[in-house]
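Collaborator request, handled under Task 6.
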Amino acid sequence: MEQIIFYILAAIIVIFAVAAVNSRKILHAVIYLLFVLASVAGIYFLVNYNFLAALQLAIYAGGVIVLIIFSVMLTHNIDAQLEIASLKSKLIAGALSIGGMAVTLYAIYSYQFNSIENHQAIEVSDIGLKLLSFERGGYVLPFEVISILLLAILIGAIVIAKGQHLIEQEHKQNQQKL
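Structure tokens returned to the collaborator:
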């Protein structure tokens, strides 16, 4: 049963990844990317990496996709049509992808993996306590710094997107006065 679910998730990933790359509408490409990221989280759940799957859903499928959709909506490019790539660009991208896959497969098959007998299970609550610890090795301060950085990036994106729109409105008003 697990193998069937894996193949279904893998097929969803491949189909929607190809759809995201070939889509001419940017909002459709973002939605296809959402399905790819959610399916990757499904594979993490399948191999019992629940914490990593939750992070995948929260950070990538949730946060990054929402940020991309907001940036598309703020710049008023919802209906924008993306350029069609030339045949030369498609061939170069395909060759680089096949080369990257060949290097990755070579590295995987040439490495001697050793199994480690470690039966110590780590609970998600242990990871959470360690991440939110104020003690040595805790990650509260980096989380706060990153949250402030992301807030500054979001405010900057809004200012840039709306700033150009406000400049255009001001220019139109000046033209009307003349």
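The cover message to the collaborator said: "The chain has three domains: 1-80, 86-111, 122-178. Residues 86-111 form one domain. Please let us know whether this matches your experimental observations."
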